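To whoever picks this up:

The parser on our side crashed when reading a file containing two proteins. I've narrowed it down to the boundary between the first structure block and the second sequence. Both blocks are reproduced below exactly, byte for byte. First block:
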Amino acid sequence: MKPERPPDLLSRTSLLRLLAVMLLVISPHLLRLPAWESALVLSIAAWRGAAAVRQWPMPHALLKVALTLAIFAGVYASYGRVWGQNAGVALLVVMLALKLTELRERRDVMVTVFLLYFLLVTHFLYSQAPWTVLYLLLSTVAITAVLIDVHHAGHARPLPMTLGPDAVAKPAADAADVRAVSTAARTAVDTAGRRRRRKVWAQRHDDAGRHRPLGAQ
């Protein structure tokens, strides 16, 4: 029987960095949300940080389901619906916070990171000022740095290494190697195809010569 693979747990440092980036991304929205939702999001983030430091267990599934239903009811009570610009953004922010209650392994970070990228775009629904563009660029760099850090095997990398050019150099070199191999493969396939076409054409020409009448020129 194949042994079960141990979970690739997220390091405490990486998790705390992810929490910091999440607060950076959602901070402008916290000023627009109802007070109860902002307090709930900050409470969940604070609890998750404490749970990472003190090694607390994750909440039970029934508690998370009950909390999710209560949040849907709260958003509906605050906005009169759960769709639309304001209600949709409010629901997205609190669902992002709830994702922290089941964040344990490295692969779980992918959903959180994609939610963070998507949540960045929603800031343009409220402001298109130049400072917004600068803020989004800073947030994008921070999210990408966390993504690189999380996928680094072993312990968390120091921030200078995560944000430095070496973090991008290896993926770029790997991509260049893949392109080189792909180009060589296409060249080999094209060369083989041309040779095969020339061989088929020559064979047809020889067959036509053998079947030509003796008196034909």
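<<boundary where parser fails>>
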Amino acid sequence: MNESEEWFQRGLSHYSKEDYEQAILSFEHSLDYDPYFLESLRYIGEIYYKQENHEKAIKIFKRAIKVDPEDSFIWYDLSLVYNKIEDYDNAIDACDIAIEFSEVAELLYTLGQLYINKASIEENPQEFQRLLNEAANCFEEILDDDPENIIYLKYMGMIYKNIGRFDSAIETFQKVLAIDSIFIYLYILDNNNKPFSQLSILGKSISYIFKD
């Protein structure tokens, strides 16, 4: 084990004890011996993210990207920082790049969430619709490989509801209810955007409660 790796291991020990100040010092010593030690850069960035020092986290993750531009998890980490500061455009771009190098469900899920987050502050109705359609594409792709995933199905149902695809929303919620044995309530909106029904289930029973 060389000097850089030894300092990295010391950093990991401090990190596991949540002694972040000493962890950063150790990781920085690791980088003194090897400025391209990717894992040291990643952990420093994660510590800054945990400490909500977003500017430093972005700087470190960008430095790590220069070391390995095809590391999907560094791009993913960068997208999380941008999301935290509500810079959704850069967050989406970073997550898109992460997916280019590793198209795993977690990344697609994050990208879908980012589109939803951006839609939540969008005032233009057409752009709002476009963003939710992009989110729908992400969750549909995940569900192609994992069609009974409750979490993704719930998100998919809510997206369908919000973009006015009510038949698809009801069908998706019914799939959730058929799979999930926990008592839950799901609200569907009619074309006038008024609550008209509440779907409930206990086990496999489904009832519709209509409202004016």
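After patching the parser it read the second block fine. Confidence is low (pLDDT under 50) at residues 183-212. DSSP finds ten helices and three strands in the chain.
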